[in-house]
Design a protein that fits this description.
Elements (H helix, E strand, L loop, with lengths): L1 E5 L2 H18 L4 E4 L6 H12 L9 E4 L1 E3 L10 H10 L9 E2 L8 H14 L5 E4 L21 E4 L2 H7 L12 E4 L2 H6 L2 E6 L5 H9 L17 E6 L9
Helix pairs in contact: 1-2
Bound molecules: 2-amino-2-deoxy-6-O-phosphono-alpha-D-glucopyranose.
2-amino-2-deoxy-6-O-phosphono-alpha-D-glucopyranose (GLP) binds next to helix 5.
Length: about 240
């Protein structure tokens, strides 16, 4: 595990964007696993800047998003479909038929998960999976539990996750109760994982996930078993690591 700590958000964003655009420059047909949430916003901004300078093209890239809420329309500003359009898809030359996000409004959600798994299998392997980290150690929407699911599945969101995400909605009642998420098996199959974390409020979970026991009660701790993980931290979130 290669852990890099940055003094500023700008440096962290540039480093994260540089890793992703560097991969696409060397492998224009790369398969990227993408994340949402507050953490990657600045990285997407830097990627768009690099694209606008004409330094990278995404026209042959395939993407798979980690997750989507169940039951909010795709054009709801807090859906992950809307998020991706707003922060990345609307600004670069990704081909819409090569971008994938689970459909949280499918009539048959089980079937939607099976379809998503099939698309992932057809793509063979994700070259780089971008990940944020939930305060409870979740990755994607794989919540802490006594057992985890390998493939894409429906999850009931924990109260703490709904509370953490309530900041994006008008009230907690509007935060969906369920989501579709890629499973940890799919995440761990990626060739490389880029975990990005910021903020003092994540320092404890960073410490636990990266140095604590490997347990499904902290899904991010499973990343310790992966052979190629790069972790980008700001000084606040990394503060307990060498303490
Ligand atoms: C969200 C997402 C995750 C994300 C995490 C942290 O609910 N499903 O993919 O990494 O929680 O979010 P944030 O970056 O906003 O702290």
């Amino acid at each position: 595990m290669n852990i890099l700590t940055f003094r500023s958000n700008e440096e962290l964003n540039e480093a994260g964007a540089g890793i992703i655009t560097g991969l696409v420059q060397t492998n224009p047909r790369a398969v990227l696993g993408l994340a949402t949430g507050g953490t990657p916003v600045g990285i997407y901004e830097e990627i768009v800047k690099t694209y606008r300078k004409g330094m990278v093209s995404f026209k042959s890239v395939t993407t798979f998003n980690l997750d989507e809420y169940v039951g909010i329309p795709e054009d709801h500003p807090e859906s992950y479909h809307a998020y991706m359009k707003h922060h990345l898809f609307g600004h670069v030359d990704l081909s819409p038929e090569r971008t994938h996000i689970p459909n949280g409004n499918a009539a048959d959600l089980e079937q939607e998960c099976a379809k998503y798994n099939q698309h992932l299998e057809d793509a063979k392997q994700i070259d780089l999976q971008l990940l944020g980290l939930g305060h409870n150690g979740h990755i994607g929407f794989n919540e802490p539990d006594h057992a985890l699911v390998s493939g894409t599945h429906i999850v009931k969101l924990k109260d703490e996750t709904r509370e953490a995400n309530a900041r994006f909605f008008d009230s907690i009642d509007e935060v969906p109760t369920h989501a579709l998420t890629m499973g940890v098996g799919t995440i761990l199959k990626a060739k490389m994982i880029l975990l990005v974390v910021r903020g003092a409020d994540k320092a404890e979970i960073v410490h636990k996930a990266l140095t604590g026991p490997i347990t499904t009660e902290c899904p991010a701790s499973l990343l310790q078993t992966h052979p190629h993980v790069v972790v980008l931290l700001d000084t606040a979130s990394g503060r307990l690591l060498n303490a």
